[in-house]
Amino acid sequence: MLMTLACDDKPASKAQAPTPSRVNAVVAKTQTAESPDDFCDVYHSDPSKAPGFEYPALTGDPPAKATGWRWINVWATWCKPCVEEMPRLASWETELKDSGLGDIVFLSADDSDEIVSKFRESHSEVPDSVRMSSADALQPWLNELGLDGSPSLPVHIFVDDAGAARCVRMGGVTDRDRGAVVGVLSGS
After folding, report:
1. Per residue in 33-66, pLDDT tens?
2. Overall average pLDDT of the 3-28 stretch
3. What is the 3-state secondary structure (H, E, C) of the chain?
């Protein structure tokens, strides 16, 4: 039995562009965000319109209530952009706290405390982290905060001093985003 595996009998042209892959179909944010509107995927300039923030179920005690703004970084050990930005965020944490702009809480979406502990043994740049008790709760929780569809990590949630989730951003934070982060935490 003879089988033909080609779609047609025309030879491929060198000038013909290859079919784009799924990876090429996603456009990353590359411009510098100049305002919270540019930086946040969901932004509530009016605090009365922002949803109240509550942590999903955690494996341990939730972090102490913040006295100012709080930046929640949702990450996982298997998320390459999460791990890449971790040292940057950890270095900004002290400066943000010292300047009175707020603090950062690292919230892991990994399946177990053991996974996070083992990962931290070989990644000293990863700060202490609280952990969601179920990764299955991640998508519904992020949908409640305004991210539609199937959000991907990392996710950054900026909560004001009244406990309202004012900014939710999906995707990594780079040095170029520093001004926008300060703007969000300043309530601008």
Report:
1. 678 889 999 999 999 999 999 999 999 999 988 8
2. 38
3. CCCCCCCCCCCCCCCCCCCCCCHHHCCCCCCCCCCHHHHCCEECCCHHHCCECCCCCECCCCCCCCCCCEEEEEECCCCHHHHHHHHHHHHHHHHHHHCCCCEEEEEECCCCHHHHHHHHHHCCCCCCCEEECCHHHHHHHHHHCCCCCCCCCCEEEEECCCCEEEEEEECCCCHHHHHHHHHHHCCC
Residue type, 147: L
Q: Which CATH architecture has domain 47-185?
A: 3-Layer(aba) Sandwich (3.40)
Minimal CA–CA distance to 122: which of 77, 153, 72, 91?
77
Task: Residue 108: count other Cβ atoms within 10 Å of its Cβ.
Answer: 26
74 neighbors 154 (Cβ within 8 angstroms): yes
Q: Tokens in use for 26? A: 């996603």
The verdict on pTM exceeding 0.85 is no
Rounded mean pLDDT of 155-170? 96
Q: Which residue has the tokens 């008790």?
A: 133
Residue 9 or residue 68, greater confidence: 68
Domain ranges of the chain: 47-185
